[in-house]
Amino acid sequence: MLDPYQLTVHSLTLRQLASAEQLAEVTGQPVAEIEAGLEKAAADGAVVAARGNYMISPAGRALLDEAYPAAFTDIRASQEIADAMEAFETGVNKQVLALTTDWQTKEVGGDRVPNDHGDADYDAAIIDKLARVHEKTGKVLRPLAAADPLVDRFLDRIGGALTRAEGGETDYVSGVRVDSVHTVWFQMHEHLLRLTGRERPE
After folding, report:
1. What is the percent of the chain with per-residue pLDDT over 90, rounded to a whole number?
2. Which domain of life does this protein belong to (predicted)?
């Protein structure tokens, strides 16, 4: 697995401009540990500091490209994990993408128009479907979660976003300024691709 320094740099591939506190939310590392890692990474040229936030540099990406094969050798060699990823890509990931589209738009008279969220029943049905896909995703990704505890952290964060959406905070479905279902799902997908060495599907 990645060491704490590598994990800090890696977290900036999942949340591309972030503070130490925001990265701690992603990885679960102590903020002080992340701050130390970011300070070292900035000195190494692996990250760029920007007004209290950080972003990864080309040197940081090169560092990770070298680290991943050794850190994730067993994961990448596992047929069970390869099968789980295939099930994820062809099943639950497509379902979440489709439901996100359904959340953002709706069909009216045969045309897709922006969803004004004036139909509470329509929105509630989508949130319910997302919750069922989230439950299924936990089962699909079980082999990956067993190999890397960060996978369960992503699933827990998605569950937290769903709870807030069910409680009426609908920005937590696909909002970009909060840790919404869509935002955290994107981060999780990127993490899974880096774990397994796969490319993001077109």
Report:
1. 93
2. Bacteria
